[in-house]
Amino acid sequence: MRILVVNVNTTQSITDSIGEQAAGTASPGTEIVPLTPSFGAESVEGNYESYLAAVAVMEAVRAHTEPFDAVIQAGYGEHGREGLQELLDVPVVDITEAAASTAQFLGRTYSVVTSLDRTVPLIEERLHVAGLSARCASVRASGLAVLDLERDEKAAVDAIVEQAARAVEDDRAEVICLGCGGMSGLTERVAERTGVPVVDGVSAAVTIAESLVRLGLSTSKVRTYAPPRPKRMVNWPPRTR
């Protein structure tokens, strides 16, 4: 089985970290193929960057020539999962939805701890669209930019733990979801310091993708995610000079 894990930003070190986390979760015989988009922002922390990332992720997958059995979209928020489901006949799993759905097996309520406050509405909207918001106690911001997670890991863990602990104490969350692909690898440390299960979206997405492939299931093509209709595209993909 081969699974593409697509970073939504263009920072290669984050792609590497996501790939390592995915590979560490994957079952024997599953090959993880990390992909970095060829264009876009170095980190995705707002609506403009998110919509640009959606196009970049779809194009990265379209440009991949080797066969694959599933795709994981490794970014929290809105990054074009629906578009990928139209384009592909293999399962597509978004880490936002993978983490939240997994959390609901582990406790009555869950909270998401993410990066900057401006990303909170994007995640809330994604959870609402996915039908996963009813049991979400809160989405909290650590105050860290995505790239800060790499610069000072101890400070990142401390900031995430602080918000996770407040989610458990103040918001009555029973499970914590790490709300950023760049937080991969921090689950054990956050769990140790909060005393509740902590779900990493990349790991959750890998196990879900593997299960869908083994069950022989993929996206329904009856209506919502039917393939795009053939039509003339104007200046797409953009011509480079």
UniProtKB/TrEMBL annotation:
UniProt cross-references to Gene3D superfamilies, sorted A to Z: 3.40.50.12500
Classification via Pfam families: Asp_Glu_race
Enzyme class, broadest EC rank: isomerase
EC number: 5.1.99.5
Record field: catalytic activity: D-5-benzylhydantoin = L-5-benzylhydantoin; a D-5-monosubstituted hydantoin = a L-5-monosubstituted hydantoin
Annotated family: Belongs to the HyuE racemase family.
Protein name per Swiss-Prot or TrEMBL: Hydantoin racemase
Lineage: Bacteria, Bacillati, Actinomycetota, Actinomycetes, Kitasatosporales
